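Researcher: Quick test of sequence recovery. C-alpha cells follow.
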C-alpha cells in the first residue's frame, strides 16, 4: 500500500514537472524589481504598493524591425526584460520581420513552446524532431495561419515571397532564451576547438575556420 502510494506520488511529481514550463505564480503578480538583484529563479518582486499599469505594458510592436542584416530577419522580443510584470507569468511575445526571402535561422528556445501567427506575407516554417528520427515537419503558412513549435526543438522560418513578411510569436516563458545553432556552434566565445568541429561536420579545418570567421 505504502509503495503504491509512493509510486503514485512519483508519477504525480514527474507529470507536474513534465507539464510545467516556468513555475506557476504564487500571487496575483510579481513585477520584477529593477533595482534589487538577488539571484533567484526569476526576478525579485517589486513592492506591490508601487506597481503601476506601465509595469504591465510595452509600446512599439507596430514598428517593423530592421531586416538589413545577413539573414534578412529581425526579432523584436517582448519578454520580462521589456515588461517587468511578466515575471513569474510564464508567457512572452515577439514580433518577427522578414525581408523578401529572409530567414529566421534554425534556433531553439530552451524554456518555451512557441505559437506563431502570420500577419503579413507567406512563410515556410519547420521544426526537427529529436534524435534519432531528426524528422523535418514543415509547412507553408499564409496570413492568419498559426503554427506551433514544441519546446526545445530546433525550428526556423523563411519568407517565401517577394514582399516583406511579419509574424507574431507567443512563447510559454517569461524568458524563453534563444540558442541560434550557427552562432552557438561557430561563434561561441571562446571558439570550440576545430578538432571537435572537423570531426563533427566531417570537413577540413579551413572550412571550419571559414565558418568561424562568419559568426
Ligand atoms: C538598418 O540597419 C543597417 C545595418 O546595420 C543600417 O545601415 C541602417 O541604417 C538601418 N536602417 C534603419 C532605418 O535604421
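Model:
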Amino acid at each position: 500500500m505504502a509503495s503504491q502510494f509512493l509510486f503514485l506520488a512519483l508519477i504525480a511529481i514527474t507529470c507536474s514537472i513534465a507539464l510545467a514550463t516556468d513555475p506557476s505564480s504564487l500571487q496575483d503578480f510579481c513585477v520584477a524589481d529593477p533595482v534589487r538583484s538577488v539571484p533567484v529563479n526569476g526576478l525579485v518582486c517589486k513592492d506591490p504598493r508601487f506597481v503601476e499599469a506601465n509595469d504591465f505594458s510595452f509600446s512599439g510592436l507596430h514598428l517593423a524591425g530592421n531586416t538589413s542584416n545577413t539573414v534578412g530577419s529581425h526579432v523584436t522580443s517582448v519578454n520580462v526584460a521589456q515588461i517587468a510584470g511578466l515575471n513569474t507569468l510564464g508567457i512572452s511575445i515577439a514580433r518577427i520581420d522578414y525581408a523578401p526571402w529572409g530567414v529566421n535561422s534554425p534556433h531553439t528556445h530552451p524554456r518555451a513552446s512557441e505559437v506563431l501567427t502570420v500577419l503579413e506575407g507567406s512563410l515556410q516554417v519547420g521544426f526537427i524532431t529529436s534524435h534519432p528520427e531528426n524528422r523535418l515537419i514543415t509547412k507553408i503558412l499564409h496570413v492568419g495561419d498559426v503554427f506551433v513549435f514544441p519546446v526545445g526543438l530546433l525550428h526556423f522560418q523563411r519568407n517565401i515571397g517577394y514582399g516583406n513578411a511579419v509574424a507574431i510569436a507567443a512563447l510559454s516563458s517569461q524568458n524563453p532564451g534563444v540558442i541560434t545553432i550557427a552562432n552557438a556552434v561557430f561563434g561561441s566565445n571562446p571558439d570550440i576547438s576545430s578538432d571537435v568541429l572537423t570531426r563533427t561536420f566531417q570537413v577540413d579545418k579551413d572550412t571550419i575556420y571559414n565558418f568561424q570567421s562568419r559568426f
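The first strand starts at residue 73 and ends at 78.
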